[in-house]
Amino acid sequence: MECRVCSGKLHGFADFGRQPLSDHFVLPGDPAPEFFFHLAVGVCEDCSMAQLLEEVPRERMFHESYPYLSSGSAVMREHFEGVAKRLLATELTGPDPFVVELGCNDGTMLKTVADAGVRHLGVEPSGGVADLAAARGVRVRKDFFEAGVAAAVRAADGPADVIYAANTLCHIPYVDSILSGADALLRPGGVLVFEDPYLGDIVTRRSFDQIYDEHFYFFCAASVRAMARRHGFELVDVERLPVHGGEVRYTLARRGARTPTPAVAALLAEEEARGLTELATLRDFAARVAANRDDLVALLTGLRDQGARVYGYGATAKSATVLNYCGIGPDLVAFVCDTTPAKQGRLTPGSHIPVRGPEAFADPYPDYALLLAWNHAEEIMAKETAFREAGGRWILYVPEVHLVGA
Ligand code: JHZ
Ligand code: SAH
Ligand code: ZN
Predict the structure, then answer these.
(1) Residues of the chain with pLDDT under 50
(2) 109 Cβ contact partners less than 8 Å away, ≥ 6 residues apart
(3) Strand, helix or coil at 250?
């Protein structure tokens, strides 16, 4: 297998077997067969990039009825408002600056930019969420960002001061085309800023469910720096973020345009010291993940045998990996509740657990709730205090299987 970035040799380190599309929630009775692919991840011996071994065609994942909404978490809404304010305060130049976002989804970040009256464009291939952005007053182009689209945007709108992408670059295997597109679109001193789940946190927190079809790359400072350099960019800043279970925000500028901050050298040194991208480290991670699976299956099977009622909380994309890898179906988890309208009334991909609205959670409360949206634990537990007061307990499976409450 060849690295998608540099064509170096890939070494597999974790295998989750046959998996469905993580955001394809199935309509009950739909006769169309589900799409499955082989979910396995490897690391490049040359550039250290961790990546999936099999690529799912992008149109299968990102389309008119893509269900994920960035606005589904209050913490994330606040996060993106903060991002917008910071980009507006630090990255704009000239009398008529221009901000571009890749994967703007429902416009949660760009709304603040639009409200500030700043020229902007969201590039978003998933039509349904792009329409929601447009309804919020955000200017959107329904397209997959790539080199050709970048050239067209540059021709129509001129150079961009900043290109921002959250939880989107790691979704794009054809990263060559993204970086050459960014080079074509950015003004000379412009930057590409992106934030994605951090490989270092995935390994430390054993958050194996960050691995699914949409997450093609698992970035770290070392691999991002190597990737940037192939296209004449330099990694000039990194910032750890607490959202989505631990992310890093990377800033790339054209080589020589900005001096890298001390945080870059510090994170590179930390990764080196812990051997983050070494095969032994990653294989050890995979072995711990298999132990988590055995613990979770044992706990849920025991609870079922005792007659306990267990619901899932948050029909996340991530949970497709957990539910299918562990073989968890409606016999172990009666249903999953979720606030996303497009997921409700459907079945979880592959595992076929019914998805219901949030009101179903309290009607009546279960004995246990499997927190599939563990990255939003603080927000969800704060809002569901009555569940614990009623004697309910949360089941978490990262970094290891444990119970919270009662
Ligand atoms: P959440 C998606 O992953 C897919 P998911 C994608 N690949 C990605 O990288 C991240 O987003 C950014 C619901 N919910 O954010 C809403 C409640 O029901 O962990 C969501 O369906 N009640 C683009 O899907 C899900 O949980 C609540 O109170 O793993 C959370 O999904 C809250 C806060 C959320 O991302
Ligand atoms: N930025 C938002 C949305 C993340 S979901 C957030 O962090 O919450 C990932 C988004 O990337 C999806 O809306 C998907 O349609 C979009 N996407 C996938 N490939 C893309 C590409 N090539 N260019 C732009 N957006 C893309
Ligand atoms: Zn490589």
Answers:
(1) none
(2) 70, 80, 81, 83, 84, 101, 164, 166
(3) strand
Among 59, 77, 143, 171, name the best residue to mutate to test ligand 2's pocket (greatest count of ligand atoms within 8 A of Cβ).
171
**Closest Cα to atom 21 of ligand 2:** 144
Please report the atom of ligand 2 found closest to the CA of residue 58: 19
Q: What is the pLDDT of residue 321?
A: 98
How high is the pLDDT of residue 108? Answer: 98
Q: What digits encode the pLDDT tens for the residues 152-188?
A: 999 999 999 999 999 999 999 999 999 999 999 999 9
Ligand 2 and 122: CB distance under 6 A? no
What is the whole-number distance in angstroms between the Cα of residue 125 and the centre of ligand 2? 7
SS3 content of the chain, % helix, strand, coil (to 5): 40, 25, 40
Nearest CA owner, ligand 1 atom 16: 72
For ligand 3, the distance from its centroid to the CA atom of residue 172, given in whole angstroms, is: 15
* Nearest Cα to Cα of residue 286 among 42, 38, 3: 42
The two structure tokens encoding residue 227: 């990737």
pLDDT value, residue 137: 98
Q: Are 40 and 16 in contact (CB under 8 A)?
A: yes
